Please model this.
Amino acid sequence: MSYPRAYLEELADKWVKGNLTPEEAHVLMEWYNSHDDSFQEVNSIKGAQQDEITEIAFRELIKRIHEEEISSITRSTAKTKKKHYYLPYAASIFVMTLISGIYYYKGRADASKVVGILAVHNLDIAPGGNKAILKLANGAKIKLDGSKNSVQVSNGKLTYNDGSLVKIPVTSDSSIAYHSLITPRGGQYQIILSDGTKVWLNSATTFVYPTKFTGNKRVVKINGEAYFEVAKSENMPFIVISKKQQINVIGTSFCIKAYDDEINERTVLSSGMVKITIGGTTETNSKSQLLIPGQQAVVGDYSMTVSNADVQSALAWKSGIFQFKKTSFEDIMKQLARWYDLEIIYKRKIPQESFTGTMDKNVHLSTILKILDESGIEVRIKDKKIIIE
Model:
């Protein structure tokens, strides 16, 4: 397919800067793959910006695509002097996720080099998707429709995002009931509460909410990871309770990560203002801290640390992306285990490497494991287990 030259120049410029959208990346890849002389055309479009891409490098890239179909991985480690690539978070490194694979670019701020491409054809362990269980106050469980992605609480009823009704058994009890929306490992779902608050649940998360908010406050509970866009109500603050903290909100968007298998909980504020309270319910035995947009609170059993946050990385999962920035190997494995519903088995000491990069969550597991394997860490899949050897 042909595209206007000006449009291709614009995409090429975005490619260098690392800010292509997925749709634009698909267009550029489609055009690139439709030309046998793509290297010359890229050069003619990008001119001096692409001077550092040599024909030899390009031919070597094509050879890698045909022979290996697997990318180089970039990693950093403080304990080894083995040759490796490091992807710092800067304009020098860009990761572009496409439909047919993951492209990695390495270079300086004024130039880029293609250093690898991953084309995946394996159909192994599929990624997670829209899965959730609604647990009613009486203990009954309803499996929600996986072809939908959200439910809404309204007028005592629960409907899917397409307007169809979730069939809940009718009871004679007219009191306010607390239900639990549970996403299993490998699941995600959204819910709009009766006040209009929107909540996105990541995998392995339990969210407890009332069928209707009454009184002078709105209280919900969370175990796992969720992103909130809270409907503003100055006379009725919104309160999120987790195992280690209480978050008081008026009208705010924020993300909380509070898994049982994590040492600390983390709250990242995107907009508005929240008050984090730990240690108890009275002023004498509790500690509170206000957060402003762009800050995060990391909460331990008896401690709270406030610092600047990388909001984009913290919210990446909500957009269907794994975004790692000097992320430890162990933390990456935990994220993969939750999303792909796997067990992680270490047959060696946990690797100390850290990784920086961006990958699509909606790819098969082999896509990601091949990248890790190329880094020198031996990883294999057996049944529903990831084994690190």
Q: What stands out?
A: The chain has seven helices and 26 strands. Residues 213 and 317 are 28 Å apart (CA to CA). The first helix runs from residue 5 to 17.
